[in-house]
Amino acid sequence: MTVKEKTEKPEEEVKAENNQKEENSNESSNSMNLAIIGGIVGAGIGLLSSPGTSQRVMKSLSESEVMRVASKELKRTAQEILTEQAVNSIRQTASGYMNKSGGSLLPNLKKNDDKEEKSDSDKDEQSSQYDEIKEDNKNLNERLDKIEDVLNQLVDSKK
């Protein structure tokens, strides 16, 4: 064995020992963290389970400026999420409508180059397609009105 190989093995062994020590310390610190968290949760449950203490805690929390700020932030975040969901819902509905109608705003109407009279079945089919589009349009308008009402309520509540 060369001198270099002799020196490398101890370095590797030292690295392995250091890694083991770090893992052991990480495991013990994780265990300690879990024990502390458990103690805090247990103390919180104990405080809130007694009627007198829980009323005082709830009163102090409701008067706390931190809780007011946190509730305003939560409210704002919820409004943003609801607005984003409403926009996504409208997009999905519109894209579904577009896919359903073949990518155009009008039903697939074929031009009659020969100017032949349309048969009764063609007229019935177009009429049913028109009625279906009319119903879809009505449903979309109702949904848009509901979404608009919800958004207006959110804006009014924010003021």
Q: What's the short version?
A:
This protein has helices at 3-49, 51-63, 65-100, 120-158. The chain is mostly helical.
Q: Number of helix segments?
A: 4
Low-pLDDT stretches are 3-7, 108-115
Helicity, as a percent range: over 70%
Strand content: under 5%
Supply the number of structural domains: 2
What is the residue-averaged pLDDT? 76
Radius of gyration in whole Å, from Cα? Answer: 34 Å
Along the chain, the helix and strand elements come as: HHHH
Number of strands: 0
Q: What's the main sheet like?
A: none
The general outline is elongated
- By secondary-structure content and strand pairing, the structural class works out as mainly alpha
Ends distance: 80 Å
Walk me through what this model shows.
Helices cover 85% and strands 0% of the residues. By secondary structure, the chain is an all-alpha fold. It folds into two domains: 12-63; 65-98 and 124-159. It is elongated, with a radius of gyration of 34 Å. The N and C termini lie far apart (80 Å). Residues 3-7 and 108-115 have low confidence and may be disordered.
Question: In terms of topology, how is this protein built?
Answer:
Blueprint: H1 3-49, H2 51-63, H3 65-100, H4 120-158
Helix pairs in contact: 3-4
Which terms summarize this structure?
single chain, about 160 residues, mainly alpha, 4 helices, about 85% helix, about 0% strand, elongated, disordered N terminus
